[in-house]
Amino acid sequence: MKYDLLGYHRAPVRVRFGQTDRYGHTWHGHLPAFMEEGRASFARHYHLGTDTLLGHNIAIPMIELACEYCHASYEDELLDVQLTLLRPVLKLPGFVFLYRVFGGPNGTTEIARGRTRQVIAAREGGLMMRSPRPIADLVEAAWRDLECAPRWTDAKAITGSAIVMGDEIIPFQPAPVAVSKEHNHEHRP
What we know:
Layout: E1 2-5, E2 9-14, H1 31-45, H2 50-55, E3 58-59, E4 62-69, E5 78-85, E6 87-88, E7 95-103, E8 109-118, E9 121-122, H3 133-147, H4 155-159, E10 168-171
Parallel strand pairs: 1-10
Antiparallel strand pairs: 1-6, 2-5, 3-9, 4-8, 5-7, 7-8
């Protein structure tokens, strides 16, 4: 499957007491929960939360989760969860998110990266072949917003990673915008 890699959404997450192992590092099993916190922040920001989905009689069960651990994090460390919703070239129902978690003294140490895939299902079960129009409109609006959001400058680090699971992920390049002289105030005589 081919996807456009757009900009990312950010969510701060703090490592809490009880989330570290005996070595003092964040226990590896908590990284997927940090990704979930990022995804919940994304859903709230783009009006795609559970109440909205259930209001349209749909659920989005998780079917894949991949996580690569890059560096240790520690109790009370503030992490920056960055995530993007990939835009499929061929529109199929479902959501594929890529995640990068940063921490360290200056917030630039990559702690982990991950990927999740969710399908769209009717609330009472059974896959759906397309999203209800209001949900599809919200997703399209999120993609438009992510086109203008900050981007990972080292996109090859993520697109060349094992977490892409064989998919082709292409960094999105916005089309150049042509400005006519009649509407460009800077070029007026």
